[in-house]
Amino acid sequence: MKSWESKKDTFEVNDVRKLTGNFLPGLLKKARGLDANKGLCVVQSFEPVPLYSAMKELGYDYQTDVVSDTEYRVYFYRTEIPDSGSEADESMPFKPTAIVNFNTIDPQLSNQVLNFWKMIWGSESPAIDMKTRLLLSLANGVGAGRMRQAAREFIKAYSVGVTIAEFDELFTMFAWNQGVGYFASEIGPSALFEAYRYAKTQEGAGKKRKEIVRKLMEKFGENNPDISPFYKRSNDHDHEN
Question: Which pLDDT tens digit goes with each residue over 35-90?
Fold first, then answer.
């Protein structure tokens, strides 16, 4: 039994089961604002495994209670507040928030997708290192025409240390394998290529990788409709009625 478990009934409950958008930024903002020795509870229809690492980086311990096949209660307790500039500020960006879309269809489907995600990305001793895995995922996204996914994989790969020289070679391979016409009409105007061009330009100007990643997330984060896995209404649609 965890030393703080007796306090969990006093934690604020955040039931996200009915939410269809990306609730993660708001939840993490709330978590960052809590003092040490405070906690919160998250209720979800599937086990929110990707949330564990994000909260751990913010200094949280956790306990998961399985109430039913479609109700998971995760109690997060803040044991410490990491110093500014610690690993909490350097974690790989983009969590698999799109799993929420599967939850809209069926919570059991979300659990199946989550288990598949854990098998691919959650292995403790993968044979292929993370940089290579992200580059492969980026290339697969481009090959399938999924530029939204490819842009996200680019930022993740850059954040874990893939060099601009390595990206230069990768984009040359795209021109070779996908064809010059496809590169010109699809890859060149994409958010993926713009993110790559931005990172390369900023490195050339002497900016540090950590600062570039922060700016990339500002320009190409979840609020960018060309990146986010969630549908965003345009201003025109918002004013139709």
Answer: 999 999 999 999 888 888 889 989 999 999 999 988 999 999 999 998 765 444 45
| Helix residue ranges per DSSP H, 46-106 | 49-57, 99-105
In terms of Cα–Cα distance, which of 121, 101, 111, 198 is closest to 154? 198
- pTM, 2 dp: 0.79
User: For residue 118, what are the contacts with CB-CB under 8 A and spacing of at least 6?
Assistant: 49
Cα 90 to the center of its chain, rounded Å: 13
Gap between the Cα atoms of 138 and 135, Å rounded: 5
> How far, in Å, CA of 226 to CA of 221, rounded?
9
Q: Which residue matches tokens 């010059």?
A: 180
Q: What's the token pair of residue 41?
A: 């509870």
44 close to 74: Cβ distance less than 8 angstroms: yes
Give the chain's length: 241
Number of other residues whose CB lies within 10 A of the CB of residue 150: 25
What the block records as the tokens of 28 is 């993490």
Q: Where are the beta strands (DSSP E) in the chain?
A: 12-15, 39-44, 60-68, 71-78
Residue at 185: amino acid letter: S
